[in-house]
Amino acid sequence: MTIQAGEARAGNAASRTPSPDPEPAEPTDPAAPVETDDAVETADQTAGTGDSDTAATRLSATRGGEKQGPAERIALSLFILVPFAALVAAVPVAWGRGLGWTDLAITVGMYYLTCHGITIGYHRYFTHGAFKAGRPMRLALAIAGSLAVEGPLVRWVADHRKHHRFSDKDGDPHSPWRYGESVPALMKGLWWAHMGWMFDEEQTPQLTYAPDLVRDPALRRISRLFWLWTTISLLLPALIGGLVSLSWEGALSAFFWGSLVRVALLHHVTWSINSICHAVGRRPFRSRDRSGNVWWLAVLSCGESWHNLHHADPTSARHGVLRGQIDSSARLIRWFELAGWVRDVRWPDAQRIAARRAA
């Protein structure tokens, strides 16, 4: 096994004592292992003073609270179906009208901006605490992740921490093995893990699984303003396309590609990590679930599809630790570290990785 250069030289960064941090409390990982995936600490234990919080605080993290109502389900359905219809129409539209360089640049740029907002911000930083960041970077990552239109920050983090707490067992919000191991059961489970779980009326308790974020006023505000970030994410490509082309046609074309198609593609790539990467893929590392590495999703998922290592060592800032495993999120984190924007990065340590190798 070969650990990628640069991160391996960081040595025992994960074990260093962090310097005093004047910023608000860094995100904790109440569902992640401390040393091994068998030593999971429950989120309930880290919630601490949850009972003393007011009802207003409990419900202030997102606009939906912990119960999903009919209006939210209708909105969710629209944000799934409309972009998906555009994704289906993308091939005949490109065949008949072509895809211009402006639309392509806007789509690719917005895709990777928002994808890295999810992978670096929502996931590796806010969910797992893979590095530390000052307040400006924290807020930038929170907003960049929100632009992906995958849900409010606090709710996303709470769901994912609960997923790690019960990964592929009872209690996992989106395991493809929910209904059993037969082929029909797995097909039903893949649908559930991909999209169906999002319509569950019972939502993950945010104060239990993301107490650190709920108690941060700035992050609560960003989470509650999810509607604003969604609006910006959808209108910005159209604005850029219109200004570049100086035409309404250019604005509409950029909206189709850079907003609808981009959102649909990113959604289904992200959801494939929950479904496909827990059903198939190589498992070179020991984990207590069925997470696997799916190489053909690596570029589009910004490195998230090296999912087996992630579940074996959730707080690692790099998921693709073997030679040839592309992980653009880890590369960006490395650049952020060199620029001084993030610190105390938990780079993979050769000894820790070796200890997690499957027999």
UniProtKB/TrEMBL annotation:
An example Gene Ontology CC term for this record: membrane
The keyword Lipid metabolism is annotated on this UniProt entry: yes
Membrane topology: Multi-pass membrane protein
Fatty acid desaturase domain location: 104-315
Keyword entries, A-Z: Fatty acid metabolism, Iron, Lipid metabolism, Membrane, Oxidoreductase, Transmembrane, Transmembrane helix
Parts of the chain that traverse the membrane: 74-95, 225-248
InterPro entries, per database record: Acyl-CoA_DS (IPR015876), FA_desaturase_dom (IPR005804)
Pfam families, alphabetized: FA_desaturase
GO biological process: fatty acid metabolic process
Subcellular location: Membrane
Chain intervals with Low complexity compositional bias: 42-57
One GO MF term attached to the UniProt entry: oxidoreductase activity, acting on paired donors, with oxidation of a pair of donors resulting in the reduction of molecular oxygen to two molecules of water
Main subcellular location of this protein, as a coarse class: membrane
Region ranges (Disordered): 1-67
PANTHER family: ACYL-COA DESATURASE, BLL4393 PROTEIN
Family statement drawn from the similarity comment of this UniProt entry: Belongs to the fatty acid desaturase type 2 family.
Record protein name field: Acyl-CoA desaturase
Protein source organism: Kitasatospora xanthocidica
